[in-house]
Design brief:
seven-stranded parallel beta sheet, Single alpha-helices involved in coiled-coils or other helix-helix interfaces, alpha/beta, homodimer, globular, LAO/AO transport system kinase (chains A, B), transferase (chains A, B), 55% helix, Rossmann fold
Chain lengths: 342, 342
């Protein structure tokens, strides 16, 4: 693969090149991984910085309608918008390509928008790396806004928040029960809560719900990287396109404040370090499942089960073998790995 | 340290040697770890097999009173009983030595009983290895029953169940609310539910609660390693020593059935393999926090934070350094490690 050519075309903003590069980072094949790493290394010294926005909300809250309306508003202002989806639950359905294209019908046809569905991956760890790398690729392709959408399930919000500059939580209008349904942890990572469906019969309920959330937010501990008034709650109506410009102004104001205070760059640095450490841990454990370490593990596991060796002594033995086999294992792969500067 | 001498004294059932060996396995010092591993290797080919009983129950349910009464009943039958406590929450109080001795006043003075309080450890992983190894030591010292007690908090039950031949759950008499408070996961690992305090004013409530739990147990999926009627719910009264003999008969019946069906040995083999794999994972990750890998991680982490290298490329670089440094790191330690046959 010609990494340099692909990189140049991504930097020129070619959507097909971007799509191909994302397919590359989504691949689990060793040679693809090596190409992906080389590509990302090549692209890392880009000047432009996109605003990375994480967005979460439970099913039915109107995420697709919101993204469609919000995305079209931004492209209408001349901004280029990328939408990435993270849905750990989509592993079963094998991705949601059709779903993502049809549920954001107008945005998906907009030349200034790029929509990428959730990859069909079962492990959140794998999803994390692929999403993080896809964000980097979108940023390298010159997108001004990268919106990373996730469903309100399990640990995916925390993961997306660790990749985003801002985190939005989309909520439905409703009473006290719904309020309690939002986990405290999610409240604590959100910068802006958007109560959607503030239209028609639900307008009054949405306003009241928004006030309830605003009250709840005031009970949370103040974060150092927040200016006065954040995190905040607002109402929007995705179907009536109401409040979207106001929400965007608030996002920009928050991002600007953080940039000036140095929190923006510091957060990205912390995130990079966080993912580096996560990758290291995952890489160490992934090697246990690969030959030849896997074979050594199975052999020692049998001896442990038979009582021929204690678990602790066997683990120490395996660690030595891991180190030796790991080094030997690496050698044949090296010639295939392209140099980052190739 | 004279491992052979210590091993011989443990095999002779010397309680002071056993206590000293448990202190050894609880130590985090590298030379102590090496001695502990050698000691356990030396002792692994023992003929006797204790019945390992896990016991959990929320605070206030009467665990101490139950263990005191149950333990004294067993020692009264000529059996030797060891009691180990696992309490992840005791990390703050720095162990509970006085507590364990005073709350089982008579049992702690019984020459056929050995009570070991929870070590003051903060990490459940470390507690797991130490507890597992302490069980092995008690078994090598010829104890007939090793009772491992844990509080009904977090993951400690699952951990103890992975070390035990049988798992008991001690419950308080009470209504439907209390019934729901018992997590489904805990119900599923319990072999026998004991509703305590079936005495005085609470006798009728305990009987009703027991029937409720019995009903709930029937809804659980049948496990292959269980004979007809298990898991089961029973009432006991620790203060009146009522139902303890019946509970002990049931434990023995279940253990006998499993021994004859081959499940007993198979479960121990599975557990040994489980802990071997857990130790491997923990050992790999623990090395990240030790020099010289820790230094390499800090250096690369800084470069990642500065944007000089991507998290993925840095993680790959660290993995190579981990393997190389890990092998180099090991060398100076080896001369200190006593041979298991020394």
């Amino acid at each position: 693969m010609d990494i340099e050519d692909l990189a140049t075309r991504i930097e020129a903003g070619e959507r097909r090149a971007l799509a191909r590069a994302i397919t590359l980072v989504e691949s689990g094949r060793a040679d693809h991984r090596a190409d992906a790493t080389a590509l990302l290394e090549r692209l890392k010294d880009r000047p432009a910085q996109a605003l990375r926005i994480g967005l979460s909300g439970t099913p039915g809250v109107g995420k697709s309608t919101f993204i469609e309306a919000f995305g079209l508003m931004l492209t209408g202002q001349g901004l280029r918008v990328a939408v990435l989806a993270v849905d750990p639950s989509s592993a079963r359905s094998g991705g949601s390509i059709l779903g993502d294209k049809t549920r954001m019908e107008h945005l998906s046809r907009d030349p200034n928008a790029f929509i990428r569905p959730s990859p069909a991956q079962s492990q959140l760890g794998g999803v994390a790396r692929r999403t993080r790398e896809a964000i980097d690729l979108c940023e390298a392709a010159g997108f001004h806004v990268v919106l990373v959408e996730t469903v309100g399930v399990g640990q995916s919000e925390t993961m997306v928040a660790e990749m985003a500059d801002l985190f939005l939580l989309l909520l439905a209008p409703g009473g006290g029960d719904e309020l309690q349904g939002v986990k405290r942890g999610i409240m604590e990572i959100a910068d802006i809560l958007l109560v959607n469906k503030a239209d028609g019969d639900l307008r009054a309920t949405a306003t009241r719900t928004c006030a309830d959330y605003a009250g709840a937010l005031r009970l949370l501990r103040k974060r150092a990287q927040d200016p006065q008034g954040f995190p905040k709650a607002m109402t929007v109506s995705a179907v009536e396109h109401a409040g979207l410009d106001k929400a965007w102004s608030e996002m920009q104001a928050l991002a600007d404040w953080r940039r000036e205070a140095g929190h923006f760059a510091a957060r990205r640095a912390d995130q990079a370090r966080f993912w580096f450490e996560a990758e290291v841990r995952e890489g160490l454990l992934a090697r246990l499942k690969r030959e030849p370490v896997r074979g050594a593990m199975a052999t020692l596991g049998r001896q442990v089960a038979e009582g021929a060796i204690t678990p602790t002594a066997a683990a120490e033995e395996l660690l030595i073998q891991y180190l030796q086999l790991g080094l030997a294992d690496r050698a044949p792969d090296d010639p295939q790995s392209p140099s980052p500067k190739a």
